[in-house]
Amino acid sequence: MAGMKSIPFTVAKNEQFFDRLGDYIGDVFYDILPEQGFELRDEQIYMAFQLEQAFKHKKTIFAEAGVGTGKTIVYLLYAICYARYMRKPVIISCADETLIEQLVKEGGDIDKLEKALGLEVDVRLAKARENYLCMKKLDPLSEYTEDEEILDVHDSVPDFVFDQGISMQSFYPYGDRKDYPWLSDKQWEQIGWDPLKQCATCDFRHRSAQTLHRDYYRHAQDIIICSHDFYMEHVWTKESRIREGQLPLLPEAGAVVFDEGHLLEFSAQKGLTYRFNYQNITNVLTGYQGQDVREESLQLAEDIMTLHDDWFDLITEIAVRVEGSNRLEIPRNPKMIEMAERLEKMVQELLEQLVFDAELFTMDAYHTKIIEEYLEFFTYGLSIFLKDDEGVYWLEEDGDESSLVIMPRLVEDVLREEVFQKNIPFIFSSATLSQDGDFSYTARSLGVDSYESFSVESPFEYEKVRTIKDHSYTDDTEKFEGIAQQLQDNEGHSLILFRSEEEMQVFREWAQEKEWSFDLLFEGDKEISELVRTFQLNASSTLCAYHLWEGLDVPGESLTQVIIASLPYPPDDPVFKAKRKHAGNPYEEIDLPYMQLRLKQGIGRLIRTEHDKGVVHIWKQA
């Protein structure tokens, strides 16, 4: 292919690619990188050999490598070389934006490799739709808003978006959320992508921000980086997009690397669901009533909205909160089922009315498409909800908003069929993929039936720099007093990890009655990256959190003590109940492995560099 980047080593006609690749990787680790000031690590050499076999034989491999092993450099080297060999990009799927930033920022791992090896790596980011501007919302809003900051966004939109006579060759990506840092999230909601807007029939479609960004990253020659959430959205929507004549969200990849791969299951659970916001159907049907339709259609839409409101009120009333989870359990209530059956029947009837109204040409095609697609989505979700034991469902509440979430089946079935049946290398990289070398829990939860695996210990001498102490308690007061003493003895410089938000709030209420010689910072009080930054800069402070069991990287004096307030067993929510239901021994197969992996991650927050040292306190109920 013209313009494709070349492999960074020569392969003669009588030579095999993987033989030359092995020689090149050896030169890089033994000669080139040490000359550039990189430390030669045996762990990297071993990991490189294992990954080479996975790429060569197109295997799935769990590459468990501890902190400080330099695992990112290894998989990046193979990803770049393999992408150029296969003439297809390698997708690197990361757990969150923090990990993506570590890869692509100036001075990050890709930048270091480029400078050390004299390479120019073509790496592009694939982001979720929520990150892009919606002209269908911004353009009409600009006609009447008095918000100068939103008007500034409209003024910055390229001319080609409005001038349909301009050649497509002059188009370029625009409209990324990061381009408008001055906007608040509330302002962005007014102009950002909206799930109720029908992109497929939008007159801005070929000039939209998300279309042009997608076209840009699809042409990456080396690496496409996305989040686990986005990768799972690609998996979930691929077939439907193809049926509708659209391209999948991501192009065909030569290989896929899952960085912090142990978190992929949670993104799969999030992505492979039907989500019904309380307000959505009301918004859709109100739009329908605004069209020129028959009286009987209007009345049916009104009846659906009334029944839907009553149904949601009942679900909210009977839903049971589960500690440690934002998923509220919904007991299978006969009245709730009867209302859902009536609702499904009425929505099906309205779909038939919609066809009749559209044939009368009283509705424009744009609104017809929006309403039809949402009602079909709604009825399909209801059909899963009504089939006993076919779906897993729960209620989520975010402020004043409620959403019914339905997961058609356990995600490992979907992943097994839609992802891991492909004949390409899949690389899982993380410091926590196994329990004492046993990868079966992670493999089983992801639907991976055949895999290779290895573990590489961290080069850090933990026994010299880290002390782990166990403590028992009989009630919260005894535990909190013990934690307070540990904080005072260490003069702050601590991270407290709680099993749940509820447990953290109980500690917070208790702590408010005490005097502290340092600041206590609590997750939720600020945007998370700003909170971590405050903790890092205020070296004597203590950070209290329930989400930061993984991903937090605070080296140095700010963090010399990790306190684990409770063993992190999984919550007793609908998803984990479903997993236990399908397990032979739920405690051994589900609860214990989950806890051990999370505990290992939490302990791993302490030692981030060879200069770190400190203590880990683990509290266990007596």
UniProtKB/TrEMBL annotation:
<dbReference type="GO" id="GO:0005524">
    <property type="term" value="F:ATP binding"/>
</dbReference>
<keyword id="KW-0378">Hydrolase</keyword>
<dbReference type="InterPro" id="IPR014013">
    <property type="entry name" value="Helic_SF1/SF2_ATP-bd_DinG/Rad3"/>
</dbReference>
<dbReference type="GO" id="GO:0016818">
    <property type="term" value="F:hydrolase activity, acting on acid anhydrides, in phosphorus-containing anhydrides"/>
</dbReference>
<keyword id="KW-0067">ATP-binding</keyword>
<dbReference type="GO" id="GO:0003676">
    <property type="term" value="F:nucleic acid binding"/>
</dbReference>
<dbReference type="InterPro" id="IPR027417">
    <property type="entry name" value="P-loop_NTPase"/>
</dbReference>
<protein>
    <submittedName>
        <fullName>ATP-dependent helicase</fullName>
    </submittedName>
</protein>
<dbReference type="GO" id="GO:0003678">
    <property type="term" value="F:DNA helicase activity"/>
</dbReference>
<keyword id="KW-0347">Helicase</keyword>
<dbReference type="Pfam" id="PF13307">
    <property type="entry name" value="Helicase_C_2"/>
</dbReference>
<dbReference type="InterPro" id="IPR006555">
    <property type="entry name" value="ATP-dep_Helicase_C"/>
</dbReference>
<keyword id="KW-0547">Nucleotide-binding</keyword>
<feature type="domain" description="Helicase ATP-binding">
    <location>
        <begin position="30"/>
        <end position="353"/>
    </location>
</feature>
<dbReference type="GO" id="GO:0006139">
    <property type="term" value="P:nucleobase-containing compound metabolic process"/>
</dbReference>
<comment type="similarity">
    <text>Belongs to the helicase family. DinG subfamily.</text>
</comment>
<dbReference type="InterPro" id="IPR045028">
    <property type="entry name" value="DinG/Rad3-like"/>
</dbReference>
